[in-house]
Specification:
The structure holds 2 protein chains of 2 kinds. Chain A has strands spanning about 5, 10-15, 20-25, 30-40, 40-50, 55, 65-70, 75-80, 90-95, 105, 110-114. Chain A is an all-beta fold. Chain B has strands spanning about 5, 10-15, 20-25, 30-35, 45-50, 50-55, 60-65, 70-75, 85-90, 100, 105-110. The mean pLDDT of chain B is about 95. Chain B is mainly beta. Chain B has no helices and 11 strands. The chains are: A mainly beta, B mainly beta.
Chain lengths: ~110, ~110
């Protein structure tokens, strides 16, 4: 298995532009998580899906952020319009059944909004 | 006060030394996780544990539920162990709700 695949690895965009981050979870994993990592706040959970259904989006900072999971093999995190304070590394992770337990993280997308 | 506290914040060791990183938490948990983040940025899950001790190669993780404390030990440390080690806990009430410590930056010098 290729693991959790995120794209792009790096994104530089101008303030006000729309940004779309993509994630392909591990096949068979039924939970998918989006995290944001900044120097100031460390890792924070933004939203997670269980069986493609958004369960908890209380970590999404503003209405400018939205996430979708149209099927079991793909999720997007969209920021529209982007702002410089959105600059961070965004990680996607997936997890299988409770018994298997551990999370598998993608390599992250480093977003810079100028 | 953060729900997950790690110590030390930074740690420098000589190759071969035994290393301990500590994690304390203040909430009810279903599991505790140790993660490793290398300078390239990728995050790897090292351990998930809810009791006792787990060992993987030179890494050992322990947890004391009563004291709400966990330790990550590295035996015979090596420069390639240099990374940020992050402690995280899954909430007792929602095991998908993971809270993270600030991380411990470990540097192992040859």
């Amino acid at each position: 298995d290729a693991g959790v695949i995120q794209s792009p690895r790096h994104e530089v965009t101008e303030m006000g532009q729309e940004v779309t981050l993509r994630c392909k979870p591990i096949s068979g994993h039924n939970s998918l998580f989006w995290y944001r990592q900044t120097m100031m706040r460390g890792l924070e959970l933004l939203i997670y899906f269980n069986n493609n259904v958004p369960i908890d989006d209380s970590g999404m900072p503003e209405d400018r952020f939205s996430a979708k999971m149209p099927n079991a093999s793909f999720s997007t995190l969209k920021i529209q319009p982007s702002e410089p304070r959105d600059s961070a590394v965004y990680f996607c992770a997936s997890r299988g059944d409770r018994e298997l337990g551990g999370y598998t993280f993608g390599s992250g997308t480093r977003l810079t909004v100028v | 006060k953060n729900e997950v506290e790690q110590s030390p914040q930074n740690l420098t060791a000589q190759e071969g030394e035994f290393i301990t990183i500590n994690c304390s938490y203040s909430v009810g948990i279903s599991a505790l996780h140790w993660l490793q983040q290398h300078p390239g940025g990728g995050i790897v899950s090292l351990f998930m544990l809810s009791s006792g001790k787990k060992k993987h190669g030179r890494l050992i993780a322990t947890i004391n539920i009563q004291e709400k404390h966990s330790s990550l030990h590295i035996t015979a440390s090596h420069p390639r162990d240099s990374a940020v080690y992050i402690c995280a806990v899954s909430s007792r009430y929602n095991n998908n709700d993971m809270r993270f410590g600030a991380g411990t930056r470990l540097t192992v010098k040859p």
